[in-house]
Each structure stands twice: as structure tokens, then as C-alpha cells.
Amino acid sequence: MTNLTILLLALMMGASPTPGLAQSGTPSTPRIDQRQEKQEQRINQGVASGALTEKEAARLQKEQDRLQKAEDKALADGKVTRKERARLEHRQDRASKHIYRQKHDKQRAN
Question: For the residues 70-95, what does the mean pLDDT come to?
């Protein structure tokens, strides 16, 4: 692994919410938090294995960050409605597909 890859991996891990904070801060969205954490793990694994280039990983991580902001906005009033939850889960579905596609394309990290 290159130093840049290690740095990127460390930055991504630092940006992801820790399980304790994610669970305690958002009691009404544990399933969404858990899924987001798994998607971030998939991105990190893709970087470590070379299946994701640094640019791809950065783009996917940015998408995860936007998803987190959308979740925070939905929680701003203290409750996530059914409609908000459905939107978040739909966005997670799309993000998951993006991760899969990027990990399985022909691009490889050097």
C-alpha cells in the first residue's frame, strides 16, 4: 500500500461515525446507521484490496457523507418520519450499487 492510500484510509476511518456515537445520537435510525457503517467498511475494504482507486473511494465516501447529512437533517426535529426513512433507505440502495459497480469495474489501484 502506498502512503497516500494509507492516509486516505485513515482519513476515511476518522470521518466515519463510531458505533457508540451513531447509536446513541440517533436512536430512531439504528438500521440506517448500521447499513451506512457497513457501506463505509466496504469502501475501506475496496481501498485495501486495490479494487477501488483513491479517486473512486473519495467519491464514494463523499456520497456517504452526504447521506449522513441527510440523516442528520431528517433527525433535526427529533423524529424520522416514514417518508424520510424511505428516502434515506432509497439513497442507501443507490450508494450500495455505486460501491458495487466501482469495486467490480476494470479500474485497479496501483
Answer: 96
* Helices (H), ranges, 1-110: 3-15, 19-25, 30-49, 54-75, 82-103
Residue 94 · residue 37 · CB < 8 Å: no
Hunting for cell 417518508 — which residue is that?
83
8-state DSSP, 17: P
Q: In b/e form, how buried is each residue of 53-79, taking b as 16+ CB within 10 angstroms? A: bbebbbebbebbeebbebbeebbeeee
- Cα–Cα distance between 46 and 79 in angstroms, integer? 34
Q: What is the pTM of this model?
A: 0.74
